[in-house]
Write a structure and sequence with these properties.
Blueprint lengths: L4 H14 L8 H5 L29 E2 L5 E2 L2 H13 L4 E3 L1 H6 L3 H11 L11 E2 H10 L1 E4 L5 E7 L2 E6 H7 L14 H11 L13 H14 L10 H12 L7 H13 L8 H11 L10 E2 L2 E3 L1 H6 L3 E4 L3 E4 L5 E2 L57 E3 L13 E3 L19 H5 L5 H53 L1
Parallel strand pairs: 3-9
Antiparallel strand pairs: 1-2, 4-8, 5-6, 6-7, 10-11, 11-12, 13-14
């Protein structure tokens, strides 16, 4: 092909040095490759490396980072990946300590077996990440182990999924997840969120929102965290209710390939590929020209995402509430804590209450002579009134002090109106009715949310039907034209 014998020998030596130590390769086998016909299925999976299949160096193209692009597919992948690669997010552990969120976050991920994983930096080397991203594919080794094959510094190499998981701090023998039935997950959702629609902003506790965001962007590489998917909900359930070590590395690597092969969507896993590169070549040196530093889930990020508001001078507050943080009651693992709806966030201190907050729910305040009921507070105890009997016009109201005085009533916004039936049944009147009304109102809002979602899906389906009908009419017109 115009190259000298010494140049061919040099390329063979380079190729042999890049082979994985897992495979024993005879020189004669490399010199005399067995060529197989390429089928449709083979074109969609990586082929075993064969150095004689590579074109001459003169026909290769090179990226701006300096690594070779040895086929049209690699060139297409490179151009797509370079446009879409982005830095991911780090977790600002120092600011989490300021909010007193750090211990709950750490324990949640420890319960999942992801303790070291959350401390992996999201900074990456763009030259290393792009070379691996452009050339990587999933292959099966000779002993049936799934491996990730790619080129690094121009040499082919492969690394098992298990080794990658260990690099990230996952437990090797842990399952990818555990079985949790839909009913359990739905009940769990109603213990952490208001309403049935699975949206991040429905989650009440801001710590859980942050944990969900980290799971979304760092494990599933989905930069849009507005929705809560089943996988994330299951991980939250495991962390809070059924601590179990899990290992999501298979799902992560498969997702890398799927995302890379798409034409759109940001690619936020360059830092993981950088970790892999440095583990394989320990003497690699970071180049400042290709170093990309990440943003963080920090004070500014949480304000922008409407998790919190305020500042260090005036204090921080949970978004859309007047609840000031830090507050120990937000901790996820307080003893005997069975739900994370945090109703106390929406209850103001008695000194801060105004009569207008509860006027719509209370009966007019009646004044009685202070001596009528004996000694007590200046306002008297809470009373339960027995209506005047219509059958006994001489009967008078009988007031009895309540044995269980409920806390001062305040107006609770819609996103907190969700009470356990046992809690409602234990209340005295009239609060039993108040809480019951609020709960049923919250359920009605949940129904409306479902109707709205179903209506949106209906409109989308209708639009898809119209597009298919239009395509069918075009096809029919073209078919009739061809027949004429």
């Amino acid at each position: 092909m115009g190259s000298s014998g010494s140049e061919q020998s040099l390329r063979r030596d380079q190729g042999l040095r890049g082979c994985s130590s897992r495979f024993s390769v005879e020189v004669e086998d490399v010199m005399e490759p067995v060529r197989r016909p390429r089928t449709r299925s083979q074109s969609q999976v990586p082929q075993p490396m064969n150095i004689d299949d590579d074109d001459d160096d003169e026909e290769w193209k090179y990226s701006s980072e300096g690594f070779s692009l040895r086929s049209a597919i690699e060139e297409q992948r490179y151009n797509s990946c370079k446009e879409r690669i982005r830095s991911n997010l780090d977790l600002d552990h120092d600011f989490m300590k300021v909010l007193n969120f750090d211990s709950s976050i750490e324990k949640s991920f420890l319960n999942l077996g992801w303790g070291p994983f959350i401390h992996i930096s999201a900074s990456y080397q763009s030259d290393l990440a792009l070379e691996i991203m452009t050339t990587m594919d999933i292959v099966q080794s000779s002993d049936g182990i799934s491996t990730l094959r790619f080129r690094l510094k121009e040499n082919w190499t492969d690394i098992s999924f298990g080794t990658v998981g260990a690099l990230f701090g996952f437990h090797t023998n842990a399952p990818e997840s555990i079985e949790v039935d839909n009913t359990t997950l739905e009940n769990f959702w109603l213990r952490i969120a208001s309403g049935h629609s699975k949206e991040r902003m429905k989650i009440i506790n801001p710590i859980l929102r942050i944990i969900h965001r980290f799971m979304t962007v760092r494990v599933l590489e989905r930069m849009d965290d507005t929705k809560v998917q089943i996988a994330e909900l299951k991980w939250l359930y495991i962390a809070l209710c059924q601590p179990t070590w899990t290992n999501p590395i298979n799902a992560m690597i498969n997702h890398w390939i799927v995302q890379r092969n798409r034409a759109t969507g940001l690619l936020g896993y360059g830092h993981y590929l950088t970790v892999i590169a440095f583990s394989l070549i320990p003497n690699l040196v970071s180049s400042p020209a290709y170093t990309v530093l990440p943003a963080s889930i920090d004070e500014n990020s949480l304000k922008k995402g409407k998790y919190i508001f305020g500042n260090s001078s005036t204090g921080f507050y949970v978004a859309k509430t007047k609840f000031r943080i830090p507050d120990r009651r937000l901790s996820l693992f307080i003893q005997n804590k069975t739900d994370w709806l945090e109703k106390f966030m929406f209850e103001e201190e008695p000194s801060q209450q105004t009569s207008s907050e509860w006027d719509a729910w209370t009966t007019p305040n009646q004044q009685f002579p202070s001596g009528q009921f004996g000694a007590g507070s200046s306002q008297g105890p809470v009373y339960q009134v027995r209506p005047i009997s219509s059958y006994d016009p001489t009967s008078t109201p009988v007031f009895q002090p309540s044995g269980n005085i409920p806390p001062p009533a305040v107006f609770i916004p819609r996103n907190a109106r969700s009470y356990d039936p046992d809690f409602i049944a234990a209340q005295q009147m009239p609060h039993r009715s108040y809480y019951g009304i609020e709960t049923m109102t919250a359920r009605n809002y949940g129904i409306l949310d479902h109707v709205r979602e179903n209506l949106q899906q209906y409109e989308q389906n209708t639009q898809n039907i119209e597009e298919q009908l239009f395509n069918l009419r075009l096809w029919d017109q073209n078919n009739q034209g061809n027949q004429e």
